[in-house]
Amino acid sequence: MTPEQRREVDEAVAAGRRALASLEEASEALESAGRWGVADIFLGGGLTSAFKHVRISKAQTALGEARAYLRAFLRELDDVSGVDDLRVRIGTLATAVDIFVDNPLVDIYVQRQIDDAQDDVAAAIAATRTVLARLEAAR
User: Fold this and answer.
1) Nearest to 27 by CA among 115, 136, 139
2) Owning domain of residue 80
3) Cβ neighbours of residue 99 closer than 8 Å, sequence gap 6 or more
4) In the prediction, which pLDDT does 110 show?
5) Cα gap 48→125, rounded to integer Å
6) How far from chain centre, in Å, is Cα 99?
7) 61 to 23, 38, 105, 107, 120: CA distances (angstroms)
8) Looking at residue 52, what is its pLDDT?
């Protein structure tokens, strides 16, 4: 491996590690949101809905960072797909209805969106780890 190739691999590994850290942060926030979501379904209340949406917001921020890091990773690799699809898909209206109306059907809808986002993040984490392992083995 030439020094230039080594530098490119090192840059890709660094970008991948940053992406992985952001994805793991998003995963933790989504897990917390999921727990609050279950509490919201069974216990109800605007406060539990608000706590859930704070965690969702934290996950959205982490996913925004992860998308940026994954794009940098892709520039180095062009191996990981689905970067632009990483987001929590809960609209403003659903958030407002969930907090202020606190309907169990809305709670279940939001919980499903959290579950879907967790699946997407888990797949992105697995793909990123796989590519990082290949890169580190190539060093």
Assistant:
1) 115
2) 3-138
3) 46, 49, 50, 53
4) 84
5) 28
6) 22
7) 10, 22, 26, 22, 15
8) 93
Closest to 114 measured CA to CA, from 54, 47, 44, 42: 54
pLDDT one digit per residue (tens) for the chain, 139 residues: 788 777 888 888 899 999 999 999 999 999 999 999 999 999 888 899 999 999 999 999 999 999 898 888 888 776 444 445 556 666 655 665 555 556 677 788 888 888 988 999 999 999 899 889 888 887 7
Count of domains in the chain?
1
59 near 31, Cβ under 8 Å? no
Q: What are phi and psi of 45, to 5 degrees?
A: 105, 140
Give the number of other CB atoms < 10 A from CB of residue 112. Answer: 12
Angle between helices 3-43 and 46-77 (to 10 degrees): 160
